[in-house]
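Collaborator request, handled under Task 6.
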Amino acid sequence: MNQGNIATLLQAIPLASVLVGRGERILGANDRALALLGPGLTGRHFITAIRQPTVLDAVEASLRDRETRQTRYLSSAGAQDTTYLVTCSPVETDAGSGVLLCFEDVTHLEQVGQMRRDFVANVSHELRTPLTALLGFIETLRGPARNDPVATERFLGTMQIEASRMERLVKDLLSLSRVEAQERVRPTDRVDLIRLINAVIHATRPIADEADVKIAFRTDVEEIHVPGDADQLHQILTNLIENAIKYGGPGKTVTVALAAHSDHPALRGPSAVISVTDQGPGIEEVHIPRLTERFYRIDSHRSREMGGTGLGLAIVKHIVNRHRGRLKVESELGQGTRFDVILPSRPATPQA
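Structure tokens returned to the collaborator:
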């Protein structure tokens, strides 16, 4: 196989590929390999081109015993680290025995694995705190406070709070799991948004009254429907309104608005926009892109005190994605926060 045939063959391989031949010299490399390892690879000793010991060891071993080996190659693309799975396969060429190196980008798999590890660590941390408190109170009640009714009543109250916190966390974890499992299945039921919003406001009004918060509903449409899952859309609105009540502060107003757009730029078609606005302290811009991350909290202590699990907005994001919609957040310090849920809609009827 001459040099031209080698180059043609390597260019046909859909991965970054390098052929190492007799004398441990590089016989050829495709464009993807040149972009990864740099120009001028052909003719160089492979040690000067690759440099990473684990890959060098794999190539030398394959050249020696003619066995296929796999290892990792680490690189960086700008600010992001990238990981490649390198397969070293023995081949025969006109110039003798060689090794074909193929670099497969597995960065996305590494990131998924890290996300899973972080998720398990976060869940463990969230559960460990109330569990530790419960175990401590149980030990106290069975020991020093065994015959102290005042302490018993106080500890049981705290234990109930911690147990409720764990119950909310488990409930949100199960909800998140269900939403993720259904995310690729687009809902098709016909949902009346005005009726839905009124139902959610009615359900959350006791919470608002207890927090001394008013809820106002504003719309200029008489009727608007979206293809969706009514229970999940109910969950979105409940999460957003409850958050607005919690973080808006007493004596303030939470405004829920519904608008219809014949051609919303976010979806490039007929859309319904549900907005939930509070009059709270607002959110710093640096936090906004991370609000929908699992367990991300701006103020962890305050969030836990208010019963937050750190999963509410992650659930909202996945439900919005399932409905092929968009979630938009606007906030300014001292001016409150506004969440927009943009959903594909059917034609709306304006109010008279």
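The cover message to the collaborator said: "DSSP finds ten helices and 14 strands in the chain. The first strand starts at residue 16 and ends at 20. Please let us know whether this matches your experimental observations."
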